[in-house]
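Students often ask why we bother encoding 3D structure as a string. The short answer is that it lets us treat folding as translation between two languages. Here is a chain of 280 residues written in the first language.
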Amino acid sequence: MKLTINIDAAHDGKTIKQLFAEKGYSLELIKKFKYDGAIEVNGERKTVRWVLREGDLLVLEANESAAHPVPAETPAVIVYADNYLYLADKPYGINTHPDRAHKDDTLANRLAATFGADFVMHVTTRLDRTTSGLVLGAFDTLTAEKLNSMQLRHEIHKTYLAVAEGIVTDDHGEVALPLARADEQNKTVVKGDGKPSLTEYRVLQRLYDRNLTEVSLVPHTGRTHQLRAHMAAIGHPLLGDVLYGGNEADRIYLHCTALDFVHPITGERIVKQSPCPWKM
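And here it is in the second language, the structure alphabet:
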């Protein structure tokens, strides 16, 4: 699907995100443009924070192969599934969705191998390629919309495991630093006028001989790279996270280990876990 919009005077000075809101685009459609397709202004890729000017040509493209993935040879690891939704355990190093560079072996492709060629991808809690763990998705549009609304209301609770560099001294704490995207660096930074952001951490073990600390992390807001940026901001970047100041390792040590939410259709409380993929 491809949409072309000529920016008029009424939208001059507004961001792409504001235009989406005015046009009433659903969250699922916006996700398709942001994560699975392309957003371009005058032929250059932009983010939803880009400020539009009268005369601009905005092109929005959704990658249909992301919603209708080709089955992979390897099936997905399913932690839970019913008639409405599923929880899959994504391994490190694969995309959640197909994109131009990775079309054949993503979590979406593996889900198609598990659930059949008619499977349509409706993901709510996507993970970066460099993060492993639980991913929540729906089998139908209605359930997907309900899950997306729950996500916006912070009713889907996530817990991550991570290994931070250095010795975290406090057993438990919070990082409440505003975050903003620095698109030219493809990273998130602490910025005074950024969005309010809150991360809770708890020390699981201190590895003094390696100068590392294993922690659990709970994001109370949902900013891009929030956990990575917050831990780096307090002087404890994640092991392997070179972008945020960590030392090179075999992976970025970040794993979504638990999801806790109320089923949007049945009302049942769903609590599922994924085991830690590393041994320290």
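Translate back mentally: Residues 66-153 form a domain with the Pseudouridine synthase fold (CATH 3.30.2350.10). Keep this in mind for the problem set.
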